[in-house]
Amino acid sequence: MGILESKEPKGPLADKWTKHKNEINLVNPANKRNIDVIVVGTGLAGGSAAATLAELGYNVKTFCYQDSPRRAHSIAAQGGINAAKNYQGDGDSVYRLFYDTVKGGDYRSREGNVYRLAEVSGNIIDQCVAQGVPFAREYGGLLDNRSFGGVLVSRTFYAKGQTGQQLLLGAYSAMNRQINRGKITPFNRHEMMDLVIVDGKARGIIARNLVTGEIEKHSAHAVVIASGGYGNVFFLSTNAMGSNVTASWKIHKKGAFFANPCFTQIHPTCIPVSGDHQSKLTLMSESLRNDGRIWVPKKKEDAEAIRSGKLKPTNLKEEDRDYYLERRYPAFGNLVPRDVASRAAKERCDAGYGVNKTGEAVYLDFSAAFMRYGKEAANTEHIENPSDEKIRELGVSVVEAKYGNLFQMYEKIVDQNPYKTPMMIYPAVHYTMGGIWVDYNLQTTIPGCFATGEANFSDHGANRLGASALMQGLADGYFVLPYTIGNYLADDISTGPISTDSPEFIEAERKVRSEIEKLVNNKGTKSVDYFHKRLGKIMWDKVGMSRNVPDLEKAISEIKALREEFWKEVRVPGTMDEMNAELEKAGRVADFLELGELFAKDALHRNESCGGHFREEYQTEEGEALRDDENFMYVAAWEYTGQPADAILHKEELNYENIEVKTRSYK
Asked: Where, by residue number, is the active site (predicted)?
């Protein structure tokens, strides 16, 4: 078992990043023209990194499996982006954002990284405003803010319910400028298949052209992985169907340690599963919890009547409703962190109070918000003695202006009007806090290979606060990596172009081609989705919202058996030398089948509950997560040695010098 060094700078917390930037090596502009960087993934983390690196003068190649960077999954982040601007004057600060993030992650994140994230957060907003991102504004012209779970201030900047899309368009426009200048060469509809290491350093990738099937070799002086998270290991998740772990898993198998794979976020505000036909789940933005109140019936007979269609939720009296988050967590109410809200919803539904046909849904109700906003609007418009109907009408208009596209999306999917009947929601797999281990410079355990955004593990601990994903992705891409990668590349200014004719590239290409041929030549009888769905069911049932030793041990053995069956029985129609969507899926599911076992192994080894990792053996009398700080205050980073079962554990001890570590409480 090894001890990992984070390379976090010494000294006062508030000075670390500034001091580090002043001391690291730089590459002068003339030398940057001779250095190539590959960026895999073009969402917010990858797109912002590619644009900034090209702006600095590096030659950048970008790779994404989508037909355009605009289709990256970052587009689906609806609710907002956090930044410590304190525009509302409600007491926010860099330190408070840092504190909320560490506390929200249940004290399982690296202090120095999180403070740096909070420190540069304000710069992100300025950068995006300069790009023309249309953030919502208040009447006076200042950017508006709303609150998200786990905080007591309003620090979330937003663009209606399309924040991720608008931020991505900002990064994409910055990329396009560099593409036009010839500093970025985009390779869309390409998938990274392997990392090439020459003399111990990452020197390029093997990619497959998803249109022609051609296997290509691409070299560079450094490789950046920004390919997102691995939530689709559960099959049903809020991720785009193409989201995968392949790029991260390939570098893991080449020597990059995989950290905290069991730290996966269950989002409380998703549209419930409606049947076996579904391929993905849809997220309702957490921003809705600002104004929606979450409840279930107080009486089981009322819940049963609602499930059977004999009672409408709008006919249930106020005193017969259980606003359970407000009851259990009065200080934060409906804005408790995601892990807390998700477990509370599961507890109510498991106890028999669920409200849809399957019994796995709770209500998100805006009726109180309609009346509250309506009264404000009536006062503003000087309407005397308005009727309740008029007040509600005015309030609906206000809510529609704030969340209209989200309400439209819900109605289109569920075929119910959320202005007239409460939304139904239930927890679902959303974000992954685990990922490739990186040091303070965002470098993996492979020299020259970096990881940014959701692909790395570094900032969110065991639970991510809402609106912090966009913050981390853009912080890494715009303001952190462009500095830290220069420190590494300063030693490469005289290296010259990297040849793709070396034995390492030729062997990597041969290996990739062999693995693809094995898939297309397999004479199985079952589809890729057949195996992915079975893996997802094992993961959700045994490694999902709550975990225990017997289930985790079963999951490990079942996943191992399923992986063996996959390689015997999977059938991939078509050939490798053409566009072949089933072949793409097969490669990704093969990687998920290995990751799933490591995921369960990590959950089994961590004998505590923290954040999104809830072990049933470790909980308080009130059913809250029970941490074990004495034995598990570390990052678990796993080294690949041939099989997930044989992965070697390395620990990065977590030290908190600026925050008092205590039991999380949102009461």
From this structure: 338 (proton acceptor)
pLDDT digits (tens, 9 = 90+) for 618-663: 999 988 999 999 999 999 999 999 999 999 999 999 999 999 999 9
Nearest-angstrom CA–CA distance, 483 and 489: 10
Number of domains the chain contains: 3
User: What pLDDT does 259 receive?
Assistant: 98
Question: Is the alpha carbon torsion for 170, 171, 172, 174 positive or negative?
Answer: positive
- The CA angle 410-414-416, to the nearest 5 degrees, is 85
The Cα–Cα gap between 156 and 198 comes to: 44
Active-site hit among 155, 338, 343, 464: 338
What 3-state DSSP class applies to 238? coil
* Token pair 């003339």 in the structure block, residue: 30
Residue 349: predicted pLDDT: 96
Structural domain boundaries enclosing 68: 13-265+430-490
Predicted TM-score (pTM) above 0.90: yes
**Is 189 tagged catalytic?**
no
| Within-domain flag for 654 | no
- Same domain for 286 and 418, yes or no, is yes
Query: Domain holding 538: CATH number?
Result: 1.20.58.100
Are 91 and 164 within one domain?
A: yes
614 part of a folded domain: yes
96 and 113 together in one domain: yes
Task: Write out residues in the chain with pLDDT < 70, as ranges.
Answer: 1-2
Per-residue 3-state assignment (H helix, E strand, C coil) for 530-555: HHHHHHHHHHHHHHCCCECHHHHHHH
Those residues whose C-beta lies under 8 Å from the C-beta of residue 25, and which sit 6 or more positions away, are: 486, 487, 490, 491
